[in-house]
Design goal:
By secondary structure, this protein is mainly β. It has strands spanning 3-7, 10-13, 18-25, 33-39, 46-51, 57-59, 67-72, 77-82, 91-98, 110-111, 115-120.
């Protein structure tokens, strides 16, 4: 079974950057469709970025040009580079994996426990 563990969250000021990591174990990450999601208190889980098995990426409009999803197959790790952060980016961030391509829909089969990102103004 695929296991996912996120790290790299923290507290930053507006305009700052963070890089989230998602370490996968159990299966080769390169054979899975992957996504990053976030959920703020009182809000629904939102798809932020996804990457397919051919490396094609998709972003929600609000992060396009600021966030970059990537993966290192040798390390079996997914990343989310987040630049120009704003308080609206504050949320718990989750990575997800599936054999099917769900793009930014929260229908992935495997989920990590999340890492908190807090952006102060």
């Amino acid at each position: 079974q695929m296991q996912l563990v996120e790290s790299g969250g923290g507290s930053v000021q507006s305009g700052g950057s963070l890089r989230l990591s998602c370490a996968a174990s159990g299966y080769r990450l390169s054979t899975y469709y992957m996504g990053w999601f976030r959920q703020a208190p009182g809000k629904e889980r939102e798809g932020v970025a996804s990457i397919d098995v051919d490396g094609r990426t998709t972003y929600v409009t609000s992060v396009r040009g600021r966030f970059t999803i990537s993966q290192d197959n040798a390390k079996n790790t997914l990343y989310l580079q987040m630049n120009s952060l704003s308080p609206e980016d504050t949320a718990m961030y989750y990575c997800a994996a599936d054999r099917s391509n769900w793009w930014l829909s929260p229908s992935y089969r495997y989920w990590g426990r999340g890492t908190q990102v807090t952006v102060s103004s």
